[in-house]
Specification:
single chain; alpha+beta; Nuclear Transport Factor 2, Chain: A; 2 domains; seven-stranded mixed beta sheet; three-stranded antiparallel beta sheet; 40% helix
Length: 272
Amino acid sequence: MERFLYRLSASSYTDCFILKGASLFLVWMGQNYRVTRDADLLCFGSPDLNNLAGIFREICTIGCNSDGMVYKTETLKAEEIREGLKYERARVTLVGILNTARIPLQIDIGFGDAITPAPENIESPTLLETPPPKLKAYPRYTLVAEKLEAMVQLDLANSRMNDFYDIWLSSKLFPFEGTILIKAIKNIFARRKTALPNGAPFAFTSEFYEDQQKKVQWNAFIKKVKPNVHVESLSIVTAEISRFLQPVIDSIQSASSFEEEWLPEKGWTLKH
């Protein structure tokens, strides 16, 4: 995936796509905190699948002599993702060839979301001495806001355990300014026409995290992604997410100021 992202960054379409999702932890922290074999992008172009497939086929043809990767354009498919979400998403799949190895790739793409604050310019680490991907990327505020919105929108139907893990991990790794996080959440919810609940989102309640199916989904997710940090049960992770986000939600709903800063080791504290 790293080498495909390099080709994207070297193409004329680099400003049309923003890197998001779990790949950002590698950029921000220099390591992956869970196994992920796909990439997530935000696209500012048309959600037309034929147009999207054409763009990605063109990206596949960009060469890089130092990495030896070849992308088979005849394997490329672009399909709509249906997860019960209200907004449009697409998935591009293709196969890369390195020597004799076949490497399946999957890129999930959203369209036209609000990004708060502005996208960051990033350089993604490389495994070998090859040119690095240089892309625009989500700030951590939008990553959290987007995943919170999916939790609220999907409710009990939510099987996206990666969202819980990524928000929980973000709260453990990064500081957040309350005022900026509020803007990011309000912008994402407004863009997707999702109402922020009064009180606790259903995903923060015991009815959600004590649901047997959710426990099974969480345990299966942790087994699959093999996180390199200790991860608690879904109930504990959800409680810690609530400690992180519920004060922000309450401030939005009450239209009160929130001049606080989140520090991973302390929680929310007044800014000095």
